[in-house]
Amino acid sequence: MSTVTPRGICFDLDGTLVDSLPDIIDSFLHGFTHHGLPVPSVAEVRALIGQPLEDMYTRFAPEHAATLCVAYREHYPLNFHRRSRPFPGVERVLRTLRERGYLLAVATTKRGDMARRFVDAMGLGGLLHHVQGTDGFPHKPAPDVIHHALKALGTGGLWMVGDTTLDLRAGQAAGLKTYAVTWGTHAQEELATAAPDELQPDLERLLHHLPPLG
């Protein structure tokens, strides 16, 4: 049996590392306005963040879902950086974990190409070892994106960090401990239903669990 110490930490992206919901929601609603369709409320859209784009649009306009996806994918790449910013302390936590010897990956429902562009635009590319999007395999809460991320890192996994119950259940399915942050999409009460190992307002507590590797 291998005695190599697992070093992999996986992070969700939107709502976990980056406060990106305003830009995502603006782009999501753009298609409804552009095509003259009834526009859902921000609260209705926010509740679905983390699900695949097609599934989100199907909830509101199933017969127009494909068209709305096209509108989003045209609008978002031109506007994703307008208000999005890393949450306070994220860069310091990522840098500290790297210095302590851990391997860091994003595991997101975003498509891989867009996720990499987004991470670089937010100034986080140099702090992560891998950015894994969901491309052609089941989305969270299935653990596939985490398995792909850890395979790319070449190590076992320790923690999955996220802001939705989908992130937490995916992490649990992958056999990782789970860390929920309350500054993103799902409220503390909803996150608690997934029984994460940590439920915190920021990432600071993660450092207590991950001392420097020898």
From TrEMBL:
Transmembrane segments: none annotated. The keyword Manganese does not apply. It is an enzyme of class 3 (hydrolase). It catalyses: 2-phosphoglycolate + H2O = glycolate + phosphate. Its EC number is 3.1.3.18. The keyword Nucleotidyltransferase does not apply. InterPro entries: HAD-like_hydrolase_sf (IPR050155), HAD-like_sf (IPR036412), HAD-SF_hydro_IA (IPR006439), HAD_2 (IPR041492), HAD_sf (IPR023214), PGP-like_dom2 (IPR023198). One of its GO terms (biological process) is DNA repair. It comes from the Bacteria. GO terms for molecular function: phosphoglycolate phosphatase activity. SUPFAM superfamilies: HAD-like. Pathway: Organic acid metabolism; glycolate biosynthesis; glycolate from 2-phosphoglycolate: step 1/1. Keywords: Hydrolase. Pfam families: HAD_2. Gene3D superfamilies: HAD superfamily/HAD-like, Putative phosphatase, domain 2. One of its GO terms (cellular component) is cytosol. Belongs to the HAD-like hydrolase superfamily. CbbY/CbbZ/Gph/YieH family. This is phosphoglycolate phosphatase. It comes from Corallococcus exercitus.
